[in-house]
Design goal:
The complex is a heterodimer. Chain A is α+β, with helices and mostly antiparallel strands. Chain A contains five helices and three strands. In chain A, helix 2 (about 10-20) packs across helix 3 and helix 3 (about 25-35) packs across helix 4. The chains are: A alpha+beta, B alpha/beta. Chains A and B meet through strand 1 of A and helix 5 of B.
């Protein structure tokens, strides 16, 4: 599982964005990560299944954020924040 | 060490955005407003309220609403109620319900997507956000006329009825409408009108003695002790009273008179400084000009320049467009087309910055004539050039 999550540059970019910004919708995630919408969506599905991210729906809009209640997500956050410094 | 002498102690206290901790001669109205919203503190969520604050320019409408907002949020905080007061200027958001709701939702989700849904959807999303975060909102719609002009009756209907479709759930959205006159409401349907007009707080024009009180308070805060002569203050109050009891005009006049005193290295603000200042302060809202979009400002700058050279009272739309295109070229901006400019003229007319009328006899065809009745073109050009970095 861990290989699958971190083997993709796109997924790592998405995680970094959510750590840095907090909450974002899919289009914005795709734009900032330089991915197309469908790819970003697929990555987010995988990350959500792994429990690392959560989403909230407002009508057709889905807003994603890091799942702070998940120990792995917190560890990923610490890792990314540490790396950025 | 600078040898520069100034009569000011803290001129930020004369800024149009400065909110005093107490509004002179508006205690009763503030009290009434707090009474209307007492439920928000005592039994939040049980009901929603709609109140209108009506009064002429410079009668303290915006300040009253904002001060109330601060006060009620403080009261809510003490009782651990999650209540937010959100103040939105409809004119600054071009009278668009969508843009105003977006501004409210961005308070909760700063990265909320900016497009891709209708204003109805956005309103539902806002209610969802409020439910999820268990927040109560008092939304103040300043310059409500702009919303009615732009969206007609529909927008207000939706806003006033949003709680009705949620009968069994908690009532989270209350409204305060701030407007100059009640007439724009006549275009609304009967039910919206009656819902809105139930609670009206009418702000009367300030009298001369009330204006003197207000100005005295500001003088104490903004000027060095004894820097403003009593006669000068009296003259400002008199001029502000003539401008329809406009306190904002009086405060701006006070600031400008102080600047004239500084410029002439005087140690006191005398009536002569006031006379000087009154010939240059235009009795329109300065913030009306400052809140305009870039191209509206460019258009206005074009007008000001043309009027500076012209002896005519009115320009034709064609002349105005030509002057605007020159300004655009200077700024490296792509000029907007005729219809957009025509909308700008309507907007500028609505905020009393320009006067427009349709040409009558004497001109071939029909065109819009634009005048600058109450602002000095020189002064306006200076102000806009400074803002647009053209000086």
């Amino acid at each position: 599982m861990v290989e699958e999550i971190f083997s993709s540059k796109g997924r790592v970019k998405i995680l970094r964005l959510l750590v840095e910004i907090g909450e974002l919708n899919i289009s914005e995630i795709a734009r900032r990560a330089g991915l197309n919408y469908a790819t970003a969506n697929q990555h987010l599905d995988i990350l959500e299944k792994a429990g690392l991210v959560l989403h909230k729906s407002f009508g057709r809009i889905r807003i994603y954020r890091l799942n702070e209640g998940n120990a792995y997500a917190t560890a990923v956050k610490t890792l990314i924040e540490g790396w950025q410094q | 060490m600078s040898s520069y002498f100034t009569v000011f102690k803290d001129e930020s206290k004369l800024d149009i955005n400065y909110l005093p901790t107490r509004l002179s001669h508006r205690d009763q109205q503030l009290n009434l407003l707090t009474r209307f919203f007492q439920f928000a503190i005592e039994s939040p969520g049980q009901m929603a309220q709609r109140v209108l604050i009506v009064g002429k320019v410079g009668t303290g409408k915006t300040a009253l609403a904002k001060l109330f907002g601060l006060k009620i949020m403080q009261m809510a905080q003490e009782k651990r109620i999650n209540l937010r007061y959100v103040h939105v200027n409809c004119r600054e958001h071009r009278g668009s319900l969508f843009m105003m709701l977006q501004r409210v939702i961005l308070d909760f989700y700063p990265h909320f997507p900016k497009r891709g849904y209708s204003s109805e959807e956005l309103l539902q999303m806002l209610m969802q956000v409020l439910d999820e975060q268990n927040v109560f909102v008092i939304l103040a719609l300043d310059e409500l006329e702009a919303l009615i002009e732009n969206e007609g009756a529909d927008a207000l209907y939706k806003l006033t009825r949003v709680n009705e479709s949620r009968l069994k759930s908690v009532q989270r959205l209350s409204l305060i409408g701030v407007l100059r006159r009640l007439e724009p409401l006549s275009s609304l349907d009967e039910s919206t009108k009656s819902t809105l007009q139930r609670n009206i707080i009418l702000l009367q024009d300030y009298s001369k003695s009330q204006l003197t009180d207000i100005l005295t308070t500001r003088v104490t805060l903004a000027f060095k002790s004894g820097a403003v002569l009593d006669d000068a203050l009296d003259l400002i109050a008199e001029l502000a009273e003539k401008e329809g009891g406009n306190a904002r005009y009086g405060i701006e006049l006070l600031w400008r008179a102080g600047k004239y005193a500084d410029a002439s290295a005087a140690s006191e603000v005398s009536p002569e400084c006031v006379r000087h200042a009154s010939s240059s302060v235009y009795p329109v809202q300065k913030d009306a000009v400052l809140s305009l979009g870039l191209h509206e400002q460019l258009f206005l700058l074009g007008l000001a320049r043309r009027f500076k050279r012209s002896k005519e009272a009115y320009l034709t739309m064609g002349e105005a467009e030509e002057a605007y295109r020159v300004v655009c070229e200077e700024c490296g901006e792509k000029p907007r087309r005729h219809t957009q400019l025509w909308k700008y003229v309507n907007n500028l007319t609505a905020v009393d910055v320009v006067k427009s009328k349709v040409s009558s006899n004497g001109l071939r065809g029909k065109t819009t004539l634009i005048g600058l009745p109450s602002i000095s073109a020189v002064e306006l050009e200076r102000e806009l050039s400074k803002r647009l970095g053209l000086q």
